[in-house]
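Morning run. Coffee first, then this:
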Amino acid sequence: MPRSRNELKERLDRYRQISLSVTGRKSGRTISRPVWFVAEEDALYLLPVAGSDTQWYKNVLKNPRVRISAREEETELRLVPISDPEGVKDIVEKFREKYGAGDVKKYYSKFDVAARAKI
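And here it is:
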């Protein structure tokens, strides 16, 4: 666990990818995936690559408690699903700013949902 929220934020500022661990909605097992993210002020934003068809997102709908890992630092968060089109659009723009519109277009296929956690 990070020693402080500031330490977690500093670590997130240094990385382009984190590990997201969710609980499988059917298996109950912990499933980890590398994901892109955007961290701003006190929020962490996630954008599922296949939108609402993404498995980790479906798992979060059943159990919103997740664990993120930025190399050696880990913490538990509660993800809040976002399906409001304007809210999703804002998060997509944040991803385009961080990773580039070309890469977002290349890797993401559906923009109908996103997720946010307080950090």
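Strands lie at 17-23, 30-36, 38-40, 43-46, 65-70, 73-78, 80-82, 114-118. Good start to the day.
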